[in-house]
């Protein structure tokens, strides 16, 4: 391929980190509103929810193990948003994305650079204290909206060749992995409408699901929508398909065949998602199925790293 491995890797990680920041901002916004602004949440339930948010974010609860309720919500928001100790906080993700963008500035359109640099400057100007004055939602929605706009700007201003394909791979692999993290932490024993609505909102799926299923309140249909829907852009199946297509566009290998390990493991996972039925997912357990998918998504990431960004020993 003509594209340098170094450039491809920077584009891939830039896209993954913007996507992670967007998803984490939405997760925090949904849960903050539902457990702090609602008196009906209940302290025990709120505590359970926020401990699951730490896991979704890939962040250890640490000293927050001794907290509960509103105190835990504030600690979770601050750590998941502003912590520089973890590479998966919102601030860290945006810093990593901007650093990667800076390293390949010549490959990006002006509009893409201005979007990601503007997001970086906005976040760097904030602090837990300044955000607290207006409430977390305003800040989180600004992060989410700008990160979502980033994807549209990329699609509209970057030529759809190898550079764009690596941006697509990063976006959709991270999106699939984060959806799996959300599902892995969902309490499937709680079939209340409130809990399933929270799940759909964290996946940006509330309105699409209502339109597709005509206001269905069946939890199994919601689960099928998030795992297996063919055209919803945040379902695990759709995201895996987009990664598979982008890999084949890069190698110019026919769909259904493979030329490297990344295409093989992605194609195998895609085939499983194409043919599995929601009943089989339920028999295994939605959380266990999501955990198994997350492991395979990690394997895809490792295979992409080995196939396109190999670490070559020096000396």
Tell me the strand percentage band. Answer: under 5%
**Which structural class do you get from the secondary structure elements?**
mainly alpha
Number of domains as seen in the coordinates: 2
Number of strands: 0
Sheet with the most strands? none
How would you sum up this structure in a few lines?
Helices cover 73% and strands 0% of the residues. It has 15 helices and no strands. It has helices at residues 5-35, 43-57, 69-82, 90-103, 110-124, 128-134, 136-157, 162-184, 193-202, 206-212, 219-228, 236-251, 261-275, 278-284, 286-308.
How would you portray this structure in words?
With 315 residues, the protein is mainly α. It has two domains: 1-158, no CATH class; 160-315, no CATH class. 73% of the residues lie in helices and 0% in strands. The protein has 15 helices and no strands. The chain has helices spanning 5-35, 43-57, 69-82, 90-103, 110-124, 128-134, 136-157, 162-184, 193-202, 206-212, 219-228, 236-251, 261-275, 278-284, 286-308. α8 (162-184) runs antiparallel to α15, α12 runs antiparallel to α13 (261-275) and α14 crosses α15.
């Amino acid at each position: 391929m003509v594209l340098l491995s170094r450039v491809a890797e920077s584009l891939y990680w830039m896209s993954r980190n913007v996507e992670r920041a967007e998803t984490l901002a939405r997760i925090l916004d949904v849960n903050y509103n539902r457990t702090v602004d609602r008196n009906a949440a209940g302290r025990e339930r709120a505590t359970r929810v926020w401990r699951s948010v730490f896991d979704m974010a890939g962040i250890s609860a640490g000293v927050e193990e001794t907290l509960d309720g509103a105190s835990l919500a504030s600690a979770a928001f601050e750590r998941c948003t502003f912590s520089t100790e973890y590479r998966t906080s919102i601030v860290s993700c945006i810093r990593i994305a901007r650093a990667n963008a800076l390293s390949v500035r010549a490959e990006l359109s002006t509009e893409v650079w201005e979007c990601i640099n503007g997001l970086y400057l906005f976040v760097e100007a904030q602090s837990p204290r300044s955000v607290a004055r207006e409430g977390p939602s305003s800040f989180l929605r600004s992060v989410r909206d700008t990160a979502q706009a980033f994807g549209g700007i990329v699609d509209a201003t970057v030529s759809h060749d190898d550079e764009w394909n690596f941006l697509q791979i990063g976006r959709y692999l991270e999106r699939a992995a984060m959806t799996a993290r959300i599902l892995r932490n969902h309490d499937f024993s709680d079939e209340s409408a409130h809990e399933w609505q929270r799940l759909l909102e964290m996946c940006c799926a509330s309105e699409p699901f209502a339109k597709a299923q005509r206001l269905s309140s069946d939890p199994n249909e919601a689960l099928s929508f998030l795992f297996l829907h063919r055209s919803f852009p945040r379902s695990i199946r759709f995201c895996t398909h987009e990664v598979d297509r982008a890999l084949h566009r890069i190698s110019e290998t026919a769909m259904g065949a493979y030329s490297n390990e990344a295409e093989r493991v992605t194609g195998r996972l895609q085939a499983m998602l194409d043919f599995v039925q929601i009943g089989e997912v339920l028999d295994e357990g939605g959380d266990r199925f999501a955990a198994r998918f997350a492991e395979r998504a990690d394997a895809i990431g490792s295979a992409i790293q080995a196939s396109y960004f190999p670490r070559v020993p020096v000396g």
